[in-house]
Design a protein that fits this description.
Layout lengths: L19 H18 L4 H11 L4 H24 L1 H4 L2 H17 L6 H29 L6 H24 L5 H18 L11 E2 L6 H41 L4 H24 L4 H21 L3 H28 L5 H20 L8 H21 L15 E2 L7
Antiparallel strand pairs: 1-2
């Protein structure tokens, strides 16, 4: 497909991109490091730590919650201090800190230290995500929708690579080697994204006699509210599967089906974001968000309804094919509504949901993972209901008020 040239007006003074695909590759590498490895490598390592490091199911949930709490801290920092999201130095510090936190996990058997390390990894992951996604949506706003979609696919690539890595390591070494290998992979991906250009500051317009931008926000806030509720509930539901899927499958299915299913989650996620973004150019994004949430709920419920290996693989394909796509659609809708700092706000709501998810299912884990997965599927269906509300009267075109000539501001709000 031929890529359309970027219109000069869309740069807002940030300069041209010599290679949009190069920018996509750097974003994908950053998301693979920060999310695919930094956050989600814990999922296939968790069964190893439970079997060989004495980690209980409850303690495993607590470590997951610590990581998600750190993610919330990082997302809120991006809201309160927008300069962080535009800083190459912050990105590099976070990439370095993330790899270091992974390498430090096998150096201790202290649950308290593991909690601190997963908390710090969460902070770094959130800032990497917000910086990378803001850069992706900001620099490539006028390119075809599939192009940013491939950037989001970096999360799936990171999941697949880290899953394959753990699958290979577990046959010859223990959980410590898995963490060391994950740290090395995160470092390599961080190096590939080292020169990523964060989003440039936007010019702020001066509007004599009123605040048309504020009026535009008031016109779209009700749709953003429904989107925020839906995406927050998605955070609650998806993270239960994202944390315990491998353990749930391995509990009822012998062999390495659980680890193999997690690799399939990553492989399905790689093209899914580009596919959902492409569909978003031809169908209503709120309608697609609703459909993706329903499909994901079915995928999460499958391992709780049947213990067959085939069902586990179908679950992995449905989950992997939707969870990054849902993020792509939700963030694109927020950008379409032109709501200020929509990426950081939605990420913060998502983070709150991810903290609540493990806490909500923790009392159910003593009976296994099936009840937890069913509850997660129900919450995702509630997110789908909120997405259905989002569809009512959704503005397919949002026309901002015509500004007067813009002037530079020290700290513009997006």
């Amino acid at each position: 497909m031929t890529v359309r040239p970027l219109r000069a007006a869309s740069h807002r003074g940030s300069g041209s991109l010599p290679s949009p695909w190069g920018h996509v590759a750097r974003v994908a590498a950053a998301l693979a490091a920060g999310m695919g490895v930094g956050r989600f490598v814990y999922t296939p390592i968790l069964p190893l730590m439970q079997a060989r490091a004495g980690l209980s199911a409850g303690a495993g949930a607590d470590l997951a919650t610590a990581n998600y709490a750190g993610y919330l801290v990082g997302a809120v920092a991006g809201i309160l201090c927008p300069a962080l999201v535009r800083s190459p130095a912050v990105l590099r510090v976070c990439l370095t800190a993330l790899a270091g936190s992974l390498a430090a996990m096998p150096a201790t058997h202290s649950t308290a230290m593991w909690t601190v390390l997963r908390l710090s990894a969460g902070v770094a992951s959130a800032l990497i995500f917000v910086i990378a996604v803001s850069s992706l949506l900001g620099h490539l706003r006028e390119y075809p929708a599939h192009l940013p979609g491939w950037g989001f696919g970096g999360v799936g690539a990171g999941i697949a690579l880290s899953g394959l890595l753990v699958l290979a390591v577990r046959s010859v070494a223990d959980w410590r080697a898995a963490w060391y290998a994950a740290a090395a992979l995160a470092a390599l991906l961080g190096a590939a994204s080292w020169n990523l250009r964060p989003e440039a500051p936007a010019p702020a317009a001066v509007h004599p006699g009123g605040d048309p931008a504020g009026a535009a926000r008031m016109r779209t806030h009700r749709w953003f509210t429904a989107l925020f509720v839906s995406y927050t509930l998605e955070g609650v539901g998806y993270i239960v599967a994202g944390t315990f899927l491998v353990s749930a499958i391995e509990q009822s299915t012998p062999g390495r089906v659980g680890s193999g299913a997690w690799v399939l989650v990553g492989l399905a996620a790689v093209p899914s974001s580009a596919l959902w973004a492409w569909l978003g150019r031809r169908r209503s994004r709120p309608g697609l968000l609703l459909a993706a949430l329903v499909v994901q709920a079915v995928g999460i419920a499958l391992p709780a309804l049947t213990t067959s290996a085939a069902a586990a693989l179908v679950c992995a394909a449905l989950f992997g094919g939707t969870f990054i796509g849902i993020s792509t659609l939700a963030l694109a809708i927020g950008s379409h509504l032109r709501f200020p700092r929509s990426v950081a706000l939605l990420t913060a709501g998502y983070s709150v949901g991810q903290i609540l998810g493990p806490l909500a299912v923790a009392p159910l884990l003593r009976h296994g993972y099936h009840q937890a997965l069913m509850l997660a599927a129900a919450v995702v269906l509630a997110a789908a209901a909120a997405a259905a509300v989002l569809r009512i009267g959704f503005p397919q075109q949002v026309t901002p008020a015509r500004p007067t000539p813009a002037v530079r501001a020290g700290d513009p709000a997006r």
